[in-house]
Write a structure and sequence with these properties.
single chain, 107 residues, mainly beta, 8 strands
């Protein structure tokens, strides 16, 4: 879905917490049903210098603070296509005092 979902962002991300915001911000041919009572959608855009084979995600929670880090790994290839990809992950609903950081890794 890196090509089928789109959001008007550049080199950043946002957290969507409800269907109304999703409908207003996200476009494209992939429009899944999301259970926003239990999940938040982390969605962002990343411009890349060469082609992309896949995207991997890892969500890590700090045991002391409860804050989370989403590691987004772009597995690159040698093609000269320089895509501006949409990445996204469903995460468990963030609590009011929890913060989320996104760490971008390109390989």
């Amino acid at each position: 879905t890196k090509y089928q979902m789109d959001i008007d962002l550049s080199q950043t991300f946002t957290i969507i917490k409800n269907q109304t915001d999703y409908n207003a911000l996200v476009t494209g041919s992939c429009q899944p049903n999301i259970d926003f009572a239990n999940y938040d959608l982390v969605i962002g855009k990343q411009a890349l210098g060469n082609g992309n084979t896949s995207i991997d995600y890892e969500l890590i929670e700090d045991c002391e603070t409860g804050n989370q880090t989403l590691k987004v790994t772009f597995n690159q290839n040698e093609t000269t296509v320089a895509p501006n990809l949409t990445y996204h992950a469903l995460i468990p609903k963030l609590k009011d005092d929890q913060q989320l950081q996104v760490e971008i890794i390109t390989k």
